[in-house]
# Entry
Amino acid sequence: MLDFQNNTLNINDLPRFEKVEGHPVDSVYLKVLRISYILGFTALIAAFVVVFLKKAPSALSFYPIVAVAVALYALLIVEVEKGFGLRKFGIREKDIIFQKGFFVFKETIVPYKRIQHVEVRQSFVFKAFKLYTLKVYTAGSSAGDLSIKGIKQADADKIKAQILKVAAIDED
Amino acid sequence: MKTDFTLPMRQDFRGILVIFMMDLFKNVKRNGYVFLPLLSSEVRENYLHYILLGLAFLLLLQLLYSYKSYLNFKFYIQGDRFFLRQGVFNFTDTEIPFDRIQNININQNVIHQFLNVVGVDIETAGQNTAEIQIKALSREVAIELKEILLKNGAEIMDEDEAPDPKIASTHKSTPLFKLNFGELLKVGLSSNYVKGFGLVLLFIMTIFRFLEDIILNIYDIELNDDHIIQLYETVGYLFVFFVFILTATFIVTIGRTVFKYFDLKVTKIENDYEVEYGLLKRFNQVIKKSKTQVFEIEENPIKNVFKIKNVFISQASSQELQQKKKIGIVGISDENIGVLFKSLFDLTYPQQFIYSKSSKRLMFRLMIKYVVLSAVIGLTLFAWKGVSLTLLFPVLLLTFFIFLVHKTIQKSHVGVNEDVIEIHSGAIHTNKKYIATHKVQSIKIKRNWFQLRNQHADLIIYTASGSERINYLKYDEVAELVNYLTYKIESSELDWI
# Structure
């Protein structure tokens, strides 16, 4: 175990990120994800059917490819269905946390202090469902940036306001 | 100061040639594949005229383009701002206030050296702001420009304190460290041979087509021979081939190091360090305390015998950092590492840390690719030579890989203390990276399906010069580390730049 007794502060008194209560993203986003994987799956199957009818490929090479593609797609569906409940964001006084992923569970923590700018945007599909994406940029590599997809405008504005408030306090 | 920078001025007239050559190289590098058809003799015989004509035309276009871009590139200084207008079809106006200028690098590549001019790069703070490249100036003008830009910047920043023009004008530059040729050879001898080996292999593969005929001839002879003689011959050829590859790797690796770090000089200028090295392309950069993100020390068994280490310093940059962009101070002694560390972190080196180690389970993840690689090599050998080599070679290879993985896991750990994070990695060599806690940008914890069940996690730390990953730590320890680091970042008054 780690032992921080050298330090003047007691490690057990520090705020714990694991204990933060997460807010789920909007359930409408699950609908969007479902529609997109159903459309994708249909397109995939349609493509296979067309290839099968037009080109009459040999069974030896065709079926394994179909099997692999379907298996990969099944994994994607499991990821969406099982992983959706795990998509949560937490707002603390000094940082923002976002977690997601079923097969690989990822938690990203960005302190407000290190945020360069915040972006609230709406893609074409999201517009139809009144959903927004909140993106937080740091000076680090883009992989370390945080992006919360599929939240309501009220939530997006709230988070943005909180970040800007802390930034303003820091300026003084 | 002789040059009047307030009037718009162009680059040195020799710049036309520099711009032309640099653009030409860039285009040839980018579109080099169009020359591939020339390898076929049929194309060469039938279309050579057209190709040459086309090339001449393109060359002319390039020359005109470069000339125009030289004519349109004008810069001047007004007040405390640097202005630049450039472009061929579209104009771009850039304006940089002096206090935004982070660094000015003067560099000289082969073309520059030939024409006796230098290139000047102006680096600015902030993420997406343009970095300006002046491709050709005479050395005197470049140094004048550098002094004006940097001095004014420093004066503006120091305005609150009593400005003392005497201190600002007399540069306190003291040489810290200089690498002579003998020491450079030591660095070359002790560097990583894998890259050199890769280059040699690549070279051999590209000329393999030309060698194929010869090798096929040898095979024809062999097939007629007795089996035992054939075995001896094959082993003989393999041995010669092996020695050849080793020698080539040796020469290429040492050559690369010598070319890259020729005449390495580190000079202390006030609080910053200026680093300069290179034979063909002269690299010149300033290490600033505020910009420094990652301080990396590399050692390996051979380096330990020579009592030298390599130091690489990554500074905040707008692009994703690659090995190329790191500032390398190679062949440095422990004593000088202490001096550098002290001035960049305000702390003595070495430091005490509390460590968290990677779990042995990391072995499974690391072994997967090695097992696959060994299997592929084994199967290729099987198809090529039959059973004899197939058994021996992959087994040897696998043993080596197991050793490598064991070492990797042994060396993979992360340590923290009050001010600094230490990230330890490497297999045969040892790599220690130091990051000041307040320079961390964000933190990510990754746990795959297995790790969620066995309570382990990967930790990724993002800085303004790339990310550092430590695999398979205990989840409890990661949680504590993350809580501690976020506390450190959020309670620190210090900025990351």
Observations:
- The first helix of chain B runs from residue 15 to 31.
- Residues 156-170 of chain B have pLDDT under 50 and may be disordered.
- Chain B touches chain A at residues 127, 316, 320, 352, 354, 356, 417-418, 440-449, 452, 460, 462-464, 466-467, 476-477, 479-484, 486-487, 489-490, 496-497 (CB under 8 Å).
- Chain B has 15 helices and 20 strands.
